[in-house]
C-alpha cells in the first residue's frame, strides 16, 4: 500500500523576497548619506587636529612674552616657527595648508583640507586678561565638520 504525501512548500515566495529587497533599499537610502557625512567629518578631524600645536604655541608665547593684544607687527607671536610656535606641518592626505595671520587685535589660524571642495577651518584668538580666547569658524561650520 502506497501512502501519498503532499509535497511541502519550501523557500520564500516572490512577493516575500520583493518586500525584503524594498526594506533593504529604503534602509540603504537613509543610511548611506548619513554615513557619507560621518566619513567626511572624520576625515576633517585631521585638519582640526593639525591646528592644536600651533594654538598651544601661540598661547604659551603670549604668556611668556606678556602680550596684552596681538598687533599687525611681527614683534609679538605672529610667526610660524618663531618664539615657540611650531612651523606649519607638511601637507598630508587630508591637510593642504595652515597659515597664521594677524588682524588689528586678533591672531587667525587658517587651515584648509586637501579636498576639491577646499573647506577651511579658522581659529581667531584674542588676548584678554592675560589669556588667549579662541573662536572657531570657517567653511566647516556650515557643513558640520567642526
UniProtKB/TrEMBL annotation:
Q: Name one Pfam family in it.
A: Pilin
What this protein is called in its record is Pilus biogenesis protein TapA
* Lineage of producing organism: Bacteria, Pseudomonadati, Pseudomonadota, Gammaproteobacteria, Alteromonadales
Annotated TM spans: 12-35
Would you identify the family this protein belongs to, as annotated?
Belongs to the N-Me-Phe pilin family.
Quote the NCBIfam families the UniProt record gives.
Answer: IV_pilin_GFxxxE
Tell me which domain of life the UniProt entry assigns to the organism this sequence originates from.
Answer: Bacteria
Gene Ontology cellular component list: type IV pilus
A Gene Ontology biological process noted in the UniProt record is: type IV pilus-dependent motility
Q: Give the species this sequence originates from.
A: Moritella yayanosii
Instruction: Keyword check for Membrane, yes or no.
Output: yes
Q: Which UniProt keywords apply?
A: Fimbrium, Membrane, Methylation, Transmembrane, Transmembrane helix
